[in-house]
Amino acid sequence: MLRRTLQSFKGVAASGFTVTPTPLINHSEIGLLKKSLPTLYGGDFASKQYPDEWHYRPGFSKEDVTREVCNAWKSSPTIASLVLSPHIAEYVAKFMGWRSIRVGQDDVIQKPRSEVSNVGWHRDYSYINSNFVGGDGCTVWISLDRATEENGGVKYAVGSQEWPMEPLRDGVDSAFMSGASDPLAYLRRYAPEDIEIACPEVDPGHAIIHQSKVFHGSSNNGSADNMREAIVVHFVEGDCQWKETESSLPWGDAGYIYGRYRRAGEVELAEDHFPITWSENEAEITGWVKDYIGNGMGMK
Asked: What is the arithmetic mean of pLDDT over 74-101?
């Protein structure tokens, strides 16, 4: 199954993204994940560990904006069973042609029906992969519902991974989480020619795999459904490292998000935060992952 599916991905690099032809997780696993989200957002963390970012708290936060928890794998063994899954990691590593693979970050997303739930155009590279040498990774956007343009599915600027790079300001130089009178205004700063936008439809359990330098965003959820949910995993190659820095500060030149994970004077990525979830050499796989999630979710 894995080899046949991977073979069907050949030749998709031009667009910067592709939809998996078969689901990565089954309906039972989708049900477990969806059931865990209210508990996660409610602050009941089964692992007793806080996530790294927690953007939405019931009774406190606005109800009509897109909700996000980052690195929820640290807080929820259920989410971790997907994010740290060796089966999905192997699938993605072989797709990318990597001999090993690390988790860079996860994002748990809930998008309510709302007129202000859009996510602006951005590149994952700017706030994740730009911190690393050999970190030109990929993102796996796994849908827990059917995602369409109507309910705010992901939109892509086709081929934009080949456009000039914007100044690196940790991703803040974008329309992220904000609206604009011209929805393509930000893209026009970098587009060398006419802009083609695509919004692939994604069935539950399927995923979009996209390159870290492709521009993407999403519109509001204008459907009759109350919520659209997805879990996103940003992967980097197993042997990537922090960029060298002349700074004596513990965070070096890393941005405001990733500076918290860097250790002074070191270029190696700490497996506490960036676990290796699959490798051709099994001895390189982070040892505590199996203790935490068992066999993990995903295509076996």
From this structure: 96
Q: Is residue 296 part of a domain?
A: no
Strand pairing category for 17-19 and 67-70: unpaired
Contact 282, 69 (CB under 8 A): no
Taking CA atoms, 187 is separated from 14, 148, 258, in Å, by 18, 22, 25
β partners of residue 148: none
For residue 65, the enclosing domain spans 2-287
CA angle 95, 137, 88 (to 5 degrees): 45
Q: Residue 19's beta-bridge partner residues?
A: 208
CATH of the domain at 249: 2.60.120.620
Dihedral-angle region of residue 171 (phi above 0 means left; psi in -120 to 50 means alpha; beta otherwise):
left
When mean pLDDT is compared across 7-11, 221-225, 246-250, the lowest value belongs to 7-11
pTM above 0.85, yes or no: yes
Phi, psi of 261 (to 5 degrees): -95, -10
Pairing of strands 100-112, 207-211: unpaired
